[in-house]
Every structure is written in structure tokens, then in C-alpha cells.
Amino acid sequence: MTQxxxxxxxxxxxxxxxxxxxxxxxxxxxxxxxxxxxxxxxxSGPIGxxxxxxxxxxxxxxxxxxxxxxxxxxxxxxxxDVMTQGHFTYFVHQxxxxxxxxxxxxxxxxxxxxxxGFLGRVIDxxxxxxxxxxxxTERNNxxxxxxxxxxx
Length: 152
Hints:
The chain is globular, with a radius of gyration of 15 Å. 32% of the residues lie in helices and 43% in strands. Helix 1 crosses helix 3. Strand 6 and strand 7 form a beta hairpin. The longest helix has 34 residues. It has three helices and seven strands. It is of the alpha+beta class. The protein has a seven-stranded antiparallel β-sheet with strand order 1-7-6-5-4-3-2, with helices on one face.
């Protein structure tokens, strides 16, 4: 199993970071580079507990789909999405938020497994893990920029 953990510090309010993080529309904007589109389930607005979204985006030169369901949510503190359909054998993304003074600490913990045994693990370490780390970092930087510009 592969794990990616990221921490992003944002000047703002936890409520704003939480809402922006679960916005389908914001995700589409922040992932324009991969042509991400929500094609089924919740396709705009905020996603909530028990709801699903199917994404279609271009990764590694291919259009891929990925369906996730929000299985846990505590308002302004956390939410967890789990892949229900896609190219991984296991995929869980935990999003955690904590207000510390004027800063919000946003944590991402992504755990996943790729198929194809040893070959899959090699492809993961060379390509998939760096791609996912960059994808989430870029998204988080968009959230940070948006929140901090809105606060001024």
C-alpha cells in the first residue's frame, strides 16, 4: 500500500477552507490542467456525506474515470472519500482541517493500492505516486491562493 501525506498551511478560516475543499466546481477549476470534469453523481456545488462523484480527467495521456463516495464527514473538521470505481484496487483520501489562530492546517492522507503486483509497484513509485502528490499539492495551492486572496 502506498501512502501520501501532505500538510498545507492557509491563512483564513477553517469554514472557508472546508467548504472550498468539497466544492466540485472549485475542483474542476483547480484541475483544469488534467481537464477534470464531474460526469456523474454530484456534478456541481458542494459534495456531502453519502454522496458520490465520478470524475473524468486526462492522466498519463489517457482519459480515466474515478468514482468516489464521501463516507465520513465532520463539519469544518474532516471528510473522507473512498473510491467505489476506478483503476486502483484500494483508494482512500482523508481530508483533515484544524484552525490554529489565523491559520488553517489542512492535512491530506491518501492511501491506495495499484494492481499488477511487482510491475504495478514499480510503475507506482516511478509515475503514479509523484503524479498524485503533485496533483494534490497543486490543488491545495489553488485552495490556499483562493482563500488568502478572498481574505484581503
